Amino acid sequence: MPDDMLWGGRFEGSVHPAIREFTNSLPFDRRLVRHDLLASLAHARMLRETDILSRGDSDLVLSGLSEILREVEAGELEVAGPDEDVHAWIERTLVERVGEAGKRLHVARSRNDQTAIALRLYVRERLEDVLSGVAGLQRVLTGQAASHRKTFLPGYTHLQRGQPVSLAHHLLAHVAAFAVDAERLRTAHRLAGVSPLGAGALAGTSFPIDPARSAALLGLDRTFANSMHIVGDRDYVLDAAYACAMLSTHLSRWADEIVLWSTREFRFIELDDSVAQGSSIMPQKKNPEAAEILRGKCARTIGNVTALLALMKGLPLTFNSDFQEDKERLFDTLDTADWSLAAATVIARGVSYRTDVMEAALAGGMLTATELADYLVRRSVPFRTAHHQVGEAVRLAEGGGVELWDLDLETLNTCCPSAGDDVHSVLRPDAAVAAHDSPGGPAPGRVLEQLQEVDRAVAALESWLDGRADPPIRRAHLEGRLLDAVLA
Fold first, then answer.
1. How far apart are CA 226 and CA 233, in angstroms?
2. 288: helix, strand or coil
3. Active-site pick, 14, 54, 274, 279
4. pLDDT tens digits, residue range 437-479?
5. Active site residue 158
């Protein structure tokens, strides 16, 4: 590309090849080509409607951009060449096809607002992909939970057996974390939905533009309040990266559980051969490598958030070329989140739960000690006193190598004198789970409520995703209506 293609008039000499290569972003920002072309179509259409661009020139520009977009999407046109970025590539390609009219496209905009709108559109599209993956994983886990409302196992604190819960309740704890991730991702999607078109380099433009029209054509309902802020803003990049990092963190915790539960020490699950791998030297091994790698992917997304925060810290208003460094970190984060969700969903489908082992693990941990304390409180014993008495009972049971529910009433009364004939009815794990009937608890009825609520929430998310129709300018492109007098 000649140096004067976008900005060379000020310069007599050529850019040093090393500097050209160092500043070139086309190898990675070319993935924004679709989004830049759509934004350019919206900008050109707005210029046509405001009479900033003549009908003749706008006919050529809109038709040329539409043809480039069609060829790019069909894989017939490669985004490659000597251009410094994807924006320069589009303008060069357009001028080659439609001539001088193509040079008029850039009126009333800068690469600053051009870059920002393309990246915002890209972020929103990719977040929708991630949200779809979240919904898919939730569906798998809730399906498993629905089958295990009366499968009981120890719940853990400090990785020590604490109280009995149902497997359904345990699985729904992960689903609940992913539900919060979905909210966070939706918020990031909404915050990215501000159109910066019309902000120019930093001070708007002297042309009679209509930023609201450009935004509407792109399916965005908000425009910027301050031109300096919007071109220097990358908060939406950080929002998306942080939301994905939190999702990766929750995926990592779930994956760690897959690794732990598949050990011979736990044996709570068996992994299908399709989601496990072997050892190069130990023939007996069946390793949860996919889950381990999924756990490790979290480090990438956390690192990317840190890098983006460091990039943004202390940058002066408004636009700075440092922003070029945001894309590879953002792209990697979104790719990692998307890929991780796909892997997690496959792993989840490949898990078989060893309910017999889970049931056996209910013994040996005195898991209903809290139920005994609560029972005594209901018989007017102060909780701290009840706690102390049950602690003595636990020592007594451990000394005899039995469970609390194995102690006869006479023996139990030596520690808990207020215990009555009905005390054993609260000490079995299934009774303890059923008794925890508080909102959000593990009792079968409460778990059913949680399942129903999750189903409603996931259905609402899926409905929202299904309703994410192409923006007006894309529909016009697909239907060949870019030159219509009115665009719906």
1. 11
2. coil
3. 279
4. 999 999 999 999 999 999 999 999 999 999 999 999 999 999 9
5. yes
Tell me whether residue 279 is one of the annotated catalytic residues: yes
Among 297, 318, 291, 159, smallest CA distance to 233 is for 318
Among 180, 157, 182, CA closest to 170: 157
The total number of residues shown for the chain amounts to 488
**Residue 484 CA from chain centroid, whole number:** 38
- Of the two residues 127 and 364, the one the predictor is more confident about is 127
Q: Is 314 helix (H, G, I), strand (E, B) or coil?
A: coil
Cα distances (angstroms) measured from residue 155 to each of 196, 227, 341: 50, 53, 25
**Alpha-carbon gap, residue 164 to 467, rounded angstroms:** 42
16's tokens: 């040093």
pTM as predicted: 0.94
Phi/psi for 420 (5° steps) reads: -110, -175
Query: What's 223's DSSP letter?
Result: E
Choose the catalytic residue: 16, 158, 438, 463: 158
**37-96 pLDDT, tens digit each:** 999 999 999 999 999 999 999 999 999 999 999 999 999 999 999 999 999 999 999 999
Residue 36 burial (CB count, 10 A): 26
Q: 153: closest CA among 353, 312, 406, 345?
A: 353
